[in-house]
Amino acid sequence: MKRSLLYQLGGAEGVDFETLAKEVALAEELGGDTVWCFPAAGEGGDFRGAAPEIWLSALARRTRRIRLGWGLAGMMPPTDPPIRVAEQGAALDLASEGRLETALIPEGELREGADESWQEGLRMLVDMWDTATFSWTSSRFEVQPVDVVPKPVQRPHPPIRLAGWSVDHARRAGRGGLGFLDLSGASDAMLEVHRDAYSEGRAEADPNDLVCVHAYAVAGDFVPGEAALERLAKWEALGFDDVVVRVGPLEGGHDEAMERIRFLTSVQTQVH
Question: Among 2, 52, 61, 60, which residue's Cα sits nearest to residue 32?
């Protein structure tokens, strides 16, 4: 089971970049797999109060091995044509020499019959990364033929997940051919329900729609100790592929973040 970190950026209780860089450097040194940077949720439930891609672009030059996870808002459903997202993502993948991971954050309620529009941003993004010349015509967007550059290092594109917190999100991630990053904070029993819904969705997916390897990650807010060890062991037994531990911002600040990183990476013989 992989071990990764999660930061929420842009909230009232912020993390400064140098502190973040020191923590990520420790995680890389000790064998952590991915650092995820997500925008903090605003009061209205939106995720537009930060720019994780700016932080990740700086981390790309300060790291060598750890993968860089970008929490992407505004894509499901797409609020604008995602050409700038495609350009920025490809540039991040180039800057990090092929270490970018992405997780699309759903926004708003999915209305009845809105599956096609909900998936549109994902399909546009994949096509922009994977084809030499991109064009698109739908009821919402029309893009004339254009070569979207640069292209990412990873081919056909960086791994794509859906971040979510419900059975419906898990099933849609599977059906859409995405990995799933479970942010629900639910009980282990409910996480199993989510995992099964994801697997059922993957079984229903059109093979031509699969855009990511089968991957189920679970995020948690672990306090180092025996109880956390027991839960990590259970998550491994349940077949989860990746555990993502929230590292910032925390009430205990930098010291608590470093403690969580050391704890997570120290149990690699049991859960890796």
Answer: 2
Encode pLDDT of 231-266 as tens digits: 999 999 999 999 999 998 998 999 999 999 999 999
Rounded Cα distance between 138 and 118, Å, is 13
Residues 6 or more apart whose CB falls under 8 angstroms from that of 195 comprise 170, 216, 238, 239, 240
Q: In total, how many domains does the chain have? A: 1
| pTM for the full predicted model | 0.92
204's CB contacts (< 8 A; 6+ apart) are: 174, 175
CATH code of the domain covering residue 6: 3.20.20.30
Strand partners, 102: 70, 160
Q: Can you tell me the distance from the alpha carbon of 24 to that of 224, in angstroms, rounded to the nearest whole number?
A: 18
Q: Are 96 and 69 in contact (CB under 8 A)?
A: no
Q: What is the pLDDT of residues 195-234, one digit of tens each?
A: 999 999 999 887 776 677 779 999 999 999 999 999 999 9
Q: Which residues contact 8 (CB under 8 A, 6 or more apart)?
A: 38, 39, 40, 41, 246, 248, 249
Q: How far apart are CA 70 and CA 269, in angstroms?
A: 28
Residue type, 102: T
> How far is the C-alpha of 128 from the C-alpha of 138, rounded, in Å?
15
Residue range(s) defining the domain that contains residue 67: 2-271
Peptide bond into 156 cis (omega under 30): yes
Asked if residue 75 lies in contact with residue 85, where contact means CB atoms within 8 angstroms, the answer is: yes
